[in-house]
Design a protein that fits this description.
The chain has one helix at 55-72; strands at residues 5-12, 16-21, 24-29, 41-45, 48-53. It is α+β, with helices and mostly antiparallel strands. The chain is globular and about 45 Å long. The two termini are 30 Å apart.
């Protein structure tokens, strides 16, 4: 299974960007995006930035990935899914 990870652009030359998430840095292609500034949050999938993320969306994805890692390590993971716990799932409007 492949996951897209939210990363922050540290530097870019317009074709590639050095991105970081936590202690990891990776050079990725930004050719699918237009004018991505330093400091932008992007969703990185297979070493390509596939779309821009806002701060909230990047945080939610990071928390979900951290929660998956915690659950795989047998650690408590509820805090990573605080936005979901205690809420009934809702169908999208088009499925109601």
């Amino acid at each position: 299974m492949c996951l897209g990870l939210p990363m922050t652009i540290v530097e870019t030359d317009g074709m590639t960007a050095l991105c970081e998430r936590g202690n990891e840095q990776r050079r990725v292609s930004v050719m699918l995006l237009v004018d991505v500034p330093v400091g932008a949050k992007v969703l990185v999938h297979i070493d390509s930035a596939v779309r821009l993320l806002d701060e909230n969306e990047a945080r939610l994805i990071s928390e979900a990935v951290d929660g998956l890692e915690a659950s795989l390590n047998g650690q408590d993971f509820d805090r990573f899914f605080a936005d979901l716990i205690g809420h009934e799932p809702q169908l999208p409007e088009h499925l109601r």
